[in-house]
Design brief:
This protein is of the alpha/beta class and about 140 residues long. The chain contains 5 helices and 4 strands. Helix 1 (about 15-30) links the parallel strand 1 (about 1-5) and strand 2. Helix 4 packs across helix 5 (about 120-135). The protein starts with a strand and ends with a helix.
Length: about 140
């Protein structure tokens, strides 16, 4: 199941298409969807989560909690709509495209991708672009 919990004014053109895209992307990575909860929240709320659970005080666009076992994804993904909107302006893309990038970024983390090194980040960005092109 994919849950989309939106506590902001950010809107999606087609949530059914979005959910199908997520399921398809997860399957392409060799995983199944158990339960993916996507929470669209404010900077303030994400900052609280970041501080409480990760002891970080910097702004971020996404925090992912991965509880998956084996090949069944079970995760909570928290996304700041404010960061997404600001990054969309910075990167000259639509807010929806930037939201897709952030969502698939979190999902790829749950599939085992990392972005700590330059090579890992490059591989992850390549996959993000691949899945966004399939939307």
């Amino acid at each position: 199941m994919i849950e989309l919990i939106n506590y902001t004014k950010f809107s999606f053109a087609d949530t059914k298409r979005l959910k199908r895209w997520i399921v398809s992307s997860v399957k392409k990575e060799g995983f199944l969807v158990d339960n993916i909860s996507l929470f669209i929240i404010t900077d303030n709320e994400l900052s609280k989560i970041n501080k409480e659970f990760l002891s970080h005080t910097t702004l971020t666009d996404i925090i992912t909690f991965n509880y998956s076992k084996e090949k069944a994804l079970l995760c909570e993904i928290y996304i700041s709509s404010e960061r997404v909107l600001e990054n969309a302006k910075i990167f000259s893309v639509t807010p929806e495209k930037e939201m897709l990038r952030v969502m698939i970024h979190g999902i790829l983390h749950c599939c085992g991708y990392n972005d700590k090194s330059v090579d890992q980040k490059s591989a992850m960005t390549k996959q993000e672009n691949f899945y966004i092109s399939r939307y």
